[in-house]
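New to this. Help decode the following:
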Amino acid sequence: MTIDRMVLAFAGLVVLVGVALAHFVHPWWIALPIFAGLNMMQAAFTGFCPAAMVFKKLGVKPGVAFR
């Protein structure tokens, strides 16, 4: 699996967990998927993604988007 796919999978997981927590625990948990969405937007325009940097340090092979 490449960094690109790992970032997408992680972002999807964060969104799903945040929505579930907002539904079952407390409505303020909706801030988690909002943050994930904002981070994905800024990464699309700037190419800077903290999750990609972490996955790179963990040894995940690079993809096309995050080098």
DSSP finds three helices and no strands in the chain.
